[in-house]
């Protein structure tokens, strides 16, 4: 965990250099399905037990396995119906355990980025060399399975430490989702000076905290997501904003919840001036068109 915040500078929301998106869009909207694989017998971690019950936690395992067997396919159909591409937060072991899922993601032209190898293997306590080895192995596996480059990163269970963002930049990762500090992309300070940007992820409109931790009914989940979009759409008239909708197929792909996703995507795609983007596209546009201006503004003291 961070001993002190060292990765980004304070940027007052109302005075920033303006961000513009392709086509004059107000909001860059992106969906991040977390396609995960949990081990029945994961290796022990001194900081966090992967399962709440004694091993083997068959109930917990099979609940999450529902996402890969059923929920993913139902969720992907709804997203395709609305022509919304996914940017997959991928436990890379899925490439070997469920190649049919990777095949479908590629058919739909979804981006794959890394969410570690398994969702039962955290970065807590890893050395820098161990973290670097995971990133490199994940890059090779995604390239082999899909032909895609690895551009984005979300550490498993957001278990990153003080070194992780620096290592990501040194390994050529272009954007991180480990930090939850903004509604626009922002520059990340790295010890090497190599570029790394943060693009907005969310624990506010994320189906795990809403549906599991807060027991939110599906209609309320849809209302919360639409309210998030409406505010960012309004503010995006002044400077482009980003809305990320993180999903987990074992939750949103349940029969009694899938209509909520359909309702949210219908609402979003019913607006003009919305950029239906991937994480990679948002990071690339920001880096090419706005990163230098934001860095210069920070250097000037955010006047």
TrEMBL record:
Classification via InterPro entries: Glyco_hydro/deAcase_b/a-brl, NODB_dom
Entry-linked Pfam families: Polysacc_deac_1
Alphabetized PANTHER family for the sequence: POLYSACCHARIDE DEACETYLASE, POLYSACCHARIDE DEACETYLASE-RELATED
Record-annotated NodB homology domain positions: 65-175
The protein's name: Chitooligosaccharide deacetylase
Coiled coil: none
Function statement: Is involved in generating a small heat-stable compound (Nod), an acylated oligomer of N-acetylglucosamine, that stimulates mitosis in various plant protoplasts.
Family: Belongs to the polysaccharide deacetylase family.
Organism: Roseomonas fluvialis
SUPFAM superfamilies, per database record: Glycoside hydrolase/deacetylase (SSF88713)
């Amino acid at each position: 965990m961070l001993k002190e915040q060292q990765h980004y500078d304070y940027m007052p929301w109302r005075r920033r250099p303006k961000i513009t998106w392709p086509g004059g869009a107000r909001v860059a909207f992106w969906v991040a399905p977390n396609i995960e694989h949990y081990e029945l017998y994961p290796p022990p971690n001194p900081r966090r037990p992967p399962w709440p019950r004694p091993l083997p936690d068959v109930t917990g395992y099979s609940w999450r396995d529902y996402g890969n067997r059923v929920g993913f396919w139902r969720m992907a159909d709804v997203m395709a119906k609305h022509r919304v591409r996914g940017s997959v937060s991928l436990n890379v072991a899925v490439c070997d355990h469920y190649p049919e899922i990777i095949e479908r993601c590629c058919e739909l032209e979804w981006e794959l980025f890394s969410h570690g190898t398994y969702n039962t293997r955290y970065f807590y306590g890893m050395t820098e060399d161990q973290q670097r080895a995971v990133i490199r192995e994940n890059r090779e596996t995604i390239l082999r399975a899909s032909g895609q480059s690895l551009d984005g990163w979300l550490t498993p269970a957001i278990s990153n430490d003080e070194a992780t963002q620096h290592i990501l930049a040194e390994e050529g990762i272009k954007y991180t989702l480990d930090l939850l500090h903004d509604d626009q992309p922002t520059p990340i300070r790295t010890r090497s000076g190599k570029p790394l940007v943060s693009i907005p992820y969310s624990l506010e409109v994320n189906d795990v905290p809403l549906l599991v931790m807060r027991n939110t009914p599906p209609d309320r989940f849809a209302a919360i997501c639409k309210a998030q979009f409406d505010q960012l759409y309004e503010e995006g008239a002044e400077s482009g904003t980003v809305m990320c909708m993180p999903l987990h197929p074992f939750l949103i792909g349940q029969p009694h919840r899938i209509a909520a996703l359909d309702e949210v995507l219908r609402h979003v795609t019913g607006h003009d001036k919305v950029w239906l983007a991937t994480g990679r596209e948002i990071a690339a546009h920001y880096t090419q068109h706005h990163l230098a201006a934001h860095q210069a503004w920070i250097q000037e003291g955010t006047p």
